[in-house]
Design brief:
With about 850 residues, this protein is mainly α. Among the domains are: about 100 residues, no CATH class; about 160 residues, no CATH class. Helices cover about 60% and strands about 0% of the residues. The protein has 38 helices and 3 strands. Strands 1-2-3 form a 3-stranded antiparallel beta sheet, sandwiched between helices. A hairpin with a 2-residue loop joins strand 2 and strand 3. The longest helix is centred in the C-terminal third of the chain and has 27 residues. The protein is flat and about 100 Å long. It comes from Chaetomidium leptoderma. InterPro entries: PPR-containing_protein (IPR050667), PPR_rpt (IPR002885), TPR-like_helical_dom_sf (IPR011990). This is Pentatricopeptide repeat-containing protein.
Length: about 850
């Protein structure tokens, strides 16, 4: 029903307004204002001369193509009602639309009056006009073709194609199960408030929505966006929403398929179900079950359970919904704490003629295990499930049951479930003070801990460590280090504290062991369970867990890396002091972390002194990561604003680091360090303006690292270090300029080859690699301002730099024995890295 329109007759010579019109402008009262008695017969006569407004016809959504065309043609033939013409007395007629009680808006012109009075919005009118034009043009074309001789067959073919096109145009959407929804459109709304409805109609009419029968993540988001915006308008006349639209909205908002995340699925379904109930739209059986579940999840637990109880005669007895109905009841009752009703529902389900799914007992196991007095019943429910499933019980089922018991602090039952999984129920450990030998060893416990850590149950793994130690089993430090590492990788502050506490617990065990070992008469009688475990908290509740597993070098490495990344320099220094007391020799990894920490703390000199002390006095062999850390500690890599004095010191330091790197025996252990180290060396020396050292380093790394600068690295060197980290207009200009510089140097190199007799058409792989090295050296000379220097003039300068960098025999003499001696590529990694 379109909004009621009011026509007011206003005279040019008089300001008189009839009482009927005044009443329509007042707030609504019990009596209908537009039925009030008119003030004069003149106004009544003017009103009776107006032609009556036609009753608008509702265009229902979803008719067949023929019915839709018939309705559209009728609307076209009828047309909008003609407004009454002005009288001969010179009267103006203005039209007003009552959009809400007490709110009246003046219409712009007769065209707007016709749209509102006809009950069709502008989009429908536009669609009708387009359809009318297409039909008329097509009919005229077919008539012309039929009048022409020999074109009857072609006309018949086009007529069939036109009918098929009309059918496809109004066929509507197709759902995931090939269900057809017909024409999806909501009509019957007008005025300014109809804009959200028009937006929803536009969304429903998109060809890209539910393409191929499967909604996309974008469909889910935009469907709720447009529907939620239109809800307020639709609530004024729910009956105008066709059933096809409700079903289509439900299909999208309830979608739960792979690859499409529907995070607010239940919230949206709960609101949609309430709207459908308000509109009087009956829910299908499957929709009722989802609506009850959504109601429960949204917090209306008691109401949802009550609704579930009432549906036992309908949904609980139909074969199509029997299983889903009772499984929903089991889950809801378990979450609500009504385990007795949940058990009765599960019993009804399992004893029925329908194929039982014993995994429905898992929610019952979880609910019973959460109650300390019902843990035994939870174990009985698990035993029943294992009996019903038999050989079909999977490892994932065991994992879920184990997680349930671990969460409830029932570690003994969790261990028994793991033993059942490993030994098929042949061993029973419940109630024993000592575990059987097949179970009570750190190898078996290590398998369990590894599995728990692998699935992410870190809290459960820690509970297992505490439990097995009380049972006389010391967990392996390898497994505990894995737990500490998993905690640290999680990024949680709470897990950081747990990892730190367990690691230092292991370190204390190591220190106690060292103290006992230092006593000659006690070494052979060492027993970790005789350590002092008092912590001063006796009588104040459960004592603190004292770990008996001793810390290893990996434990210190995990803490060192974490402290360094979090910039806890003081804690790292404390850790290294304890490392000496624990009598664990420092490794290159620990040295690298301490050097990096000193560098981050602004103590670069201390970092270098530490490196020299640990490498020379403590005989710690550096590796590639050590020298990468040292080059990163240079001021040109640490400071944003360069210091000339520090930059000069960087030249000597970089050459000294390079000499140590060449003379130390180490090899690349990963492709990552192989890519980072040469790049960092070249950038560091180039930023320090050690141009001779840069050329010598490139030649030495070519022989010892098999390093060839890629073209992308040449462009970065031409533009400057760190200039391309942010995609700004300035950086893009520098990138283009750097690319042009490299192309110019490559062109010069090839021109030199042509002048020497090379054809210059195709180049071998060796020639391409030689070109890259030549371009690198030309680039360095260009930055140094000595691009016109000849090789004869450059050679003496390079020899001095090579002597200081310890590669004179490699770069100048090219001694094959020295090159083979100092190569840094291992036999296993060499081929892959090159």
């Amino acid at each position: 029903m379109p909004p009621r329109t009011i026509a007011l007759d206003l005279s040019r010579c008089s300001s008189y307004v009839c009482k009927s019109c005044l009443d329509s402008l007042r707030p609504p009262v019990s009596a209908r204002p537009w039925l009030a008695r008119p003030a004069s017969s003149t106004a009544r006569s003017r009103r009776t001369q107006r032609p009556p407004l036609p009753h608008p016809r509702k265009v229902q959504a979803g008719p067949d193509p023929a019915e839709l065309q018939r309705i559209l043609i009728e609307e076209l033939e009828r047309g909008p009602p003609e407004p009454p013409s002005s009288s001969a007395g010179g009267l103006d007629v203005n039209y007003f639309n009552q959009e809400a009680p007490g709110q009246v808006r003046r219409l712009r012109d007769n065209e707007e009056f016709g749209e509102i009075a006809g009950g069709l919005d502008s989009e429908i009118a536009t669609a009708i006009d387009d359809l009318e034009k297409k039909m008329i043009n097509t009919a005229k074309m077919l008539q012309r073709m039929e009048k022409q001789g020999g074109r009857q067959d072609k006309a018949d073919e086009l007529r069939k194609h036109f009918k098929k096109t009309l059918r496809l145009q109004y066929k509507g959407k197709t759902g995931p199960e090939a269900e057809e929804y017909g024409l999806l459109r909501i009509s019957g709304f007008s005025g300014p408030r109809q804009r959200p409805v028009a937006n929803l109609n536009t969304f429903l009419a998109r060809d890209s929505v539910v393409k191929g029968g499967i909604p996309r993540a974008r469909d889910l988001t935009e469907c709720w966006k447009y529907y939620s915006a239109a809800r307020k308008t639709l609530s004024a006349a729910w009956q105008n929403v066709p059933p096809e639209v409700w079903n289509f909205l439900w299909m999208i908002l309830s979608w739960e398929g792979e690859g499409v995340e529907n995070a607010n699925r239940m919230q949206h379904l709960y609101i949609l179900a309430k709207d459908m109930q308000a509109a009087g739209v009956p829910l299908r059986d499957s929709q009722q079950l989802l609506a009850v579940e959504a109601m429960f999840i949204e917090g209306w637990e008691e109401e949802a359970i009550e609704a579930w109880k009432k549906a036992v005669v309908t949904l609980g007895s139909k074969p199509e919904t029997f299983t889903d109905y009772w499984e929903l009841g089991v889950r809801m009752c378990c979450l609500h704490g009504d385990t007795e009703r949940a058990q009765r529902a599960a019993e009804t389900l399992l004893k029925s003629a329908h194929p039982p799914n014993a995994r429905i007992l898992i929610p019952i196991i979880r609910a019973l295990a959460a109650k300390e007095a019902a843990v035994a019943q939870a174990w009985e429910a698990y035993s029943d499930m294992r009996t019903l499933l038999g050989e079909s019980m999977t490892i994932e089922d065991y994992d879920e049951v184990i997680a349930v018991f671990l969460t409830s602090d029932c570690v003994e039952y969790a261990l028994q479930a793991f033993v059942d999984m490993m030994f098929s129920g042949a061993i029973d450990i419940r109630g024993r003070t000592r575990l059987p030998l097949a179970v009570g060893n750190h190898f078996f416990i290590g398998k369990w801990l590894k599995r728990l850590i692998g699935v992410g149950d870190l809290e459960g793994a820690y509970k297992v460590v505490v439990y097995v130690q009380r049972m006389g089993i010391t967990a392996s430090p390898i497994q505990l280090n894995g737990l500490i590492g998993a905690w640290l990788r999680s990024g949680s502050a709470e897990n950081f504290e747990k990892a730190d506490a367990l690691a230092w617990n292991m370190i204390r065990a190591r220190l106690e062991y060292v103290k006992l070992r230092q006593r000659r008469d006690v070494v052979q009688f060492y027993d970790p369970y005789k350590l002092d475990t008092t912590d001063g908290s006796e009588g104040e509740g459960e004592p603190e867990f004292i770990c008996h597993s001793k810390a290893t070098a990996e434990t210190f490495s995990l803490l060192a890396e974490n402290y360094c990344s979090r910039r806890l320099h003081g804690r790292l220094q404390e850790l290294f002091e304890v490392l000496k007391q624990a009598e664990i020799g420092p490794t290159s990894f620990l040295m690298n972390q301490l050097i990096r920490s000193y560098s981050q703390n602004g103590e670069a000199d201390e970092a270098v002194n530490l490196y020299q002390t640990m490498a020379k006095e403590q005989n710690i062999s550096p590796d590639g990561h050590t020298f990468l850390t040292l080059f990163n500690s240079l001021s040109v890599n640490r400071l944003i604003q360069r210091d000339p004095d520090l930059t000069k010191k960087d030249i000597d330091s970089a050459r000294r680091f390079f000499r140590d790197m060449i003379q130390t025996e180490w090899s690349f252990d990963s492709a990552d360090i192989f890519a980072q180290l040469p790049r960092t060396i070249l950038f560091s020396m180039l930023k320090a303006k050690d141009f001779r050292g840069t050329i010598v380093a490139a030649r030495a790394m070519k022989e010892l690292f098999a390093f060839h600068p890629p073209e992308a690295l040449l462009v970065e060197l031409a533009t400057g270090a760190g200039s391309l980290q942010v995609r700004t207009k300035r950086n893009m200009e520098r990138l283009v300029a750097g690319r042009r510089t490299i192309e110019t140097l490559m062109k010069k190199h090839r021109m030199g080859l042509i002048a020497a007799g090379h054809p210059g058409v195709e180049m071998t792989e060796e020639e391409k690699l030689a070109e890259l090295h030549d371009v690198l050296e030309r680039l360095v000379l260009l930055k140094a301002g000595g691009q016109n220097v000849t090789r004869e003039e450059l050679q003496p300068l390079l020899e001095v730099a090579a002597q200081e960098m310890g590669v004179y025999d490699i770069v100048v003499k090219r001694d094959a024995d020295q090159i083979a001696k100092h190569k840094k590529l291992s036999k296993l990694m060499g081929g892959a890295l090159v």
